[in-house]
Automatic annotation (TrEMBL), chain A:
Gene Ontology biological process terms in this record: tricarboxylic acid cycle
NCBIfam families: PRK05678.1, sucCoAalpha
One Pfam family of this chain: CoA_binding
Catalytic-site annotation from UniProt: 247
Signal peptide extent: none
Catalytic reactions on record: succinate + ATP + CoA = succinyl-CoA + ADP + phosphate; GTP + succinate + CoA = succinyl-CoA + GDP + phosphate
EC number of this enzyme: 6.2.1.5
Full protein name: Succinate--CoA ligase [ADP-forming] subunit alpha
UniProt xrefs under SUPFAM superfamilies: NAD(P)-binding Rossmann-fold domains, Succinyl-CoA synthetase domains
TrEMBL record, chain B:
Family, as annotated: Belongs to the succinate/malate CoA ligase beta subunit family.
Biological or metabolic pathway of the protein: Carbohydrate metabolism; tricarboxylic acid cycle; succinate from succinyl-CoA (ligase route): step 1/1
UniProt cross-references to InterPro entries, sorted A to Z: ATP-grasp, ATP-grasp_succ-CoA_synth-type, ATP_grasp_subdomain_1, Succ-CoA_synthase_bsu_CS, SUCC_ACL_C, Succ_CoA_ligase-like_bsu, Succinyl-CoA_synth-like
Pfam families (alphabetical): ATP-grasp_2, Ligase_CoA
Names of required cofactors: Mg(2+)
Name of the featured protein: Succinate--CoA ligase [ADP-forming] subunit beta
Subunit structure: Heterotetramer of two alpha and two beta subunits.
Species in which this protein is naturally found: Candidatus Muproteobacteria bacterium RIFCSPLOWO2_01_FULL_60_18
Amino acid sequence: MSIFINKSSRVVIQGLTGQHGSFHAEESIKIGTQVVAGVTPGKGGTKHLGIPVFDTVHEAVARTGADVAGIFVPPPFAADAIMEAIDTGIRTIVVVADGIPVQDMVRVKRYSAGRDVVIVGPNTPGVITPNECKVGIMPAHIYKPGMIGVVSRSGTLNYEAVEQMAEYKLGQSTCVGIGGDTVTGTDFLTVMRAFKGDPDTEAVVMIGEIGGSQEIEAAAWAKDHLGKPLVCFIAGLTAPSRRRMGHAGAVIAGPADTAAAKMERIEALGAHVVRNPSKIGEAVHHALR
Amino acid sequence: MNIHEYQAKELLRQYAVPVPAGSVAHSVEQAVAVAEELGVSRFVIKAQIHAGGRGKAGGVKLAHTVEEVRAATDEMIGRPLITAQTGPQGQRVQRVLIEQAVDIAREHYFGFVIDRASQRITIIACDGGGVEIEETARNEPARIVREAVDPAVGLLDFQCRKVAAHLGLGGKHLPAAVKLMKALYRCFRDNDAVLIEINPLAVTLDGQLLALDAKMQFDDNAIYRRPHISNLRDFDEEDPKEVEAAAHGLNYIALEGNVGCIVNGAGLAMATMDAIALHGGRPANFLDVGGGASPEKVANAFRIVLLDKNVKAVLVNIFAGINRCDWVAEGIVRAMRELNVKVPVVVRLAGTNVEQGRAVLAQSGLNFLTANNLDDAAAMAVRATSGATAHEHLYK
């Protein structure tokens, strides 16, 4: 099994005809992803990569039965695109767009409140269930089917962890990037709850970074509820105070935001904390024994 | 993006938020002219730099005469001001704000932020002014009030009254307090701010509410739609290397170590710095080349990293997803040739087109240290710095 997406997922790509949407749709089709529709306002009725393109997500859903949306539209239009997807009742939305104004995301969060939808991102490498379905931009060939669930704020650290796991012949159930922004669609806790409900996920890797407390909230929940080993790394031990380290949300505003403080709290909550970013794979291997 | 206090106060005036009478001066002569025009009996001279902690560092002075304004301005303008936030080299003061000094009865902290917990625009206020809000929130949480704004309806009057009551701004102060909070909210919302901090918000002896200081930060991702804010950017307040990096689509932050870092992705860039530290070294910078890095972009990254003369080795760590290792390798080779790089360069490539990338490096005939994983790469880079000049570790 897996979380959020699998081989039965029917994916609509918003922004399919753009350079990024086009490239990454093709890449994801290579691993078996069913990309059933594209949406580009003004290009409805055409085909792109042999895939039907619609003006609206509603049409795409009605005509193709799409149930997962991947959003590759430019940041100024992304919030509208997300809300359009929400309005159709699609329950899994992956927002790859990077650089969405934070107040736009505040409105998106309000719009999605109380609805049964998981919004992954923005600024996410996406979601991948190896050899079944990918909605995102990660290099699919490094991901292998297996029993480890991976959730990270960073994209490249997700790749890094996965590559390290390969040395120990550990594959992944599903890997999720939640994105590095201050206001994100979904958080660590939401993804961790999903991993709990997936019988094929035997352990969870959480890769966080400086800023905020969502890693601690997720670890606190995991302590009593996850019922599976949790391995955690927090990036940014050497990050200076008050500087935004690439990600909008990666900033140390107070002592609790530091990597050291977060790792200490998470360790006290019973998770396997790994302090060396090169030893994530090894830590997962040990946690499973 | 940050702006100066005087710019923030000009913006506040547009929203009818009361601020002290005053104006910015770029020279001693201008300061004197501003003081004469104000024609008051007491002045405040405030150094305009982005970093906080100005008061304790001598960047805020009181004056009773125009001559004292002249003297105070003369002491500040053109000189570095070293505060707790500037670093030891300080920040050169290019302009000062001259204001009428006011008689303060009470001070409060009042701010709007994008709150991570509520994921909404949120008021944070404290009954005491001039406080370090993070510290107060930690040590005396009961003094802090938070009020999140539902974006569907905006900031409501009753929410303002709640906050005002907490601050002791009830009764006769209430109408002005509500008006001020709603104006600040509009200013925050309509300019895509991510922080507005009024610290202190003062009640004067004659009963007026006044924003005595103002700090504002704006969302870099929304600047494209706020040209009037973008125009307020002061490049003198930023590290020139960081400005140049941004112009090339690179995210660079200067640090104090000697291992230059060129990495893709913010998370991996931080982790690479951490790995260097775990091996006993110190990173010279954070640098994220981003996605789709062209050979030009990588070559520019090298150039910017090497502008820092402390750099004794460069570590390139690329895990290509949407990047291509062969492009990155071409950029490395180009940079090595064009810039005549003399420090050791450690390269770790992984992900998309990794074999082609390694081939480009091998065929170049240049001298690289190649690493197969992050741990080895960090260890090799740290060793390379100490091998070059053993005493270099002793700086600062």
